[in-house]
Structures are given as structure tokens and as C-alpha cells.
Amino acid sequence: MPISITPADLEKDDLFPCEMASWQHPFQPLWYLLFPIDSSTPETEAASIAAIRTRRAAGQSAPPPPQNEEEVVWLKATDTATGEIVGGAMYRIFHTNPFRAPAEEFKAEWWSEKGREDLRWLTESMMGQMKVWRPRFVSYLNALFVHPSHRRRGIGSLLTEWGARKADALNYEAYIEGTALGTPVYEKHGYVTMKMLRLNFDHYQGEMGEKSEEFIGLRRQLEASEAALMWRPRGGKYIKGETVLPWTGKPAEV
Length: 254
Prior knowledge:
Layout: E1 3-7, H1 16-24, H2 29-34, H3 42-57, E2 70-79, E3 85-94, H4 109-113, H5 117-133, E4 139-146, H6 155-170, E5 174-178, H7 183-188, E6 192-198, H8 213-224, E7 226-232, E8 244-245, E9 250-251
Parallel strand pairs: 4-5
Antiparallel strand pairs: 1-2, 2-3, 3-4, 5-7, 6-7, 8-9
């Protein structure tokens, strides 16, 4: 059954059920920390999902370039036979250097609202470490997801291909933090692993309260997972030992 990849409007297209199913199977602690859902009652679950939808849609209100230096593009993958949304992606495309000015400090205030300062600290520490990983990017794949029931249909590849073509049309570099599940797909479209990365939370000193069992479990899962820092040069052509890395001014060591 054919799949179509088209821009999504988060006010009309409900991508969140598909995204939620994707990060729950298998469980992704990063997404749980960023988008927690309180399922204790139907009312709290509905309120949690509504709040997440609002946060997800916030970036769409920005004016297009050149008035805005960052362009946020949401995509949806639709099964044309059924009309079902079976995947999606969000790209952040920077038309100027995103690091020329200090970024606002990331605040996971939703955990404070739940009285969970330990998980707020874990989330903010996680995002702070990930920010340090990013030496340079222009087109950044912020999120890509495929419904578990529709994997192995090439949907992730189609969503990645869209971003590669967009970057090539703009003559931009591109960047991804790849998981083990997605890395082979990204490599197919010209991304190269620069190094493997791990989170570490040894610096936790308890200043945000006692460590809950949930904190300990999430920390263990985050530290056990590797991420691939992946870069795609302009045009997607990388020659080992020859292609110059813009952030160092020389090729990567072989």
C-alpha cells in the first residue's frame, strides 16, 4: 500500500497517537521525560495529551523566513489506502547560525508541577548534555516516528529522504542524533556517524530531592543507551579521510 509524505498542520492533523505508540514500543525514556502522560484517570490522561499537543504545536506559529531564523516543518506519513497517519517527523531548519547567541536554559517545568524535582533535574541534565553534543547544524531532524504496526514498510526512509532533499535544495548540512533503530536508515541517505555518545548522571548530588525508584530506573536506561552523532555534508557526499568537517576545518581522523 503506497505511503504519501506531506507537510502536516498540527491544528488539523493528529500525529500524537502515532508518535506516542512509537516511543512506547519500545519504551523510550527520553520521550517519557519530555512528554509524560498521567494515566491515573481518563481526565488526567486527556489533560496530559492536550498539554503535549499545545507544546508540540507552539513552533508552528513562527513566521516563515526571512522574518524568522528558524523554520519548523512537521511531516506526516499517510497510508493512502486507509487514510491513516502511520508516521511523522519534525525538522528544524536554521537559516542562520543557531549558536551565535546563548540559548535559553531548558526548563522541564511540567515535572515541578507534579512535584517531581528529581525527574525535572534528570530531564534538564539530559537536555543540557545533548546540547553540548551539537557542534554545528543547519537542518536538524528533531523527531521521527513510525507506528509499530507499520514498521518495515520504508516509512522512516521516506521521511529521512524528504529531509535530505530539503537540505540539498538549500545547500545545507544536516544533523541527527541516531538511535540503533534508525542509524542504518540515516546512513542510506548520506548521514555519517561522527562518534558514539552516552549520557552520564554521576554529577547528581541530590540537590533536587531524594532519588525515587522511577528516577533510578530511568537513569539506568538512559545511561545504557548509545546515540550516534550523525552529520550529513552538503550534497550528502562524504569521503572518509577527505571530506572537511566545518567545525574543525579538517577531515576526521581515520
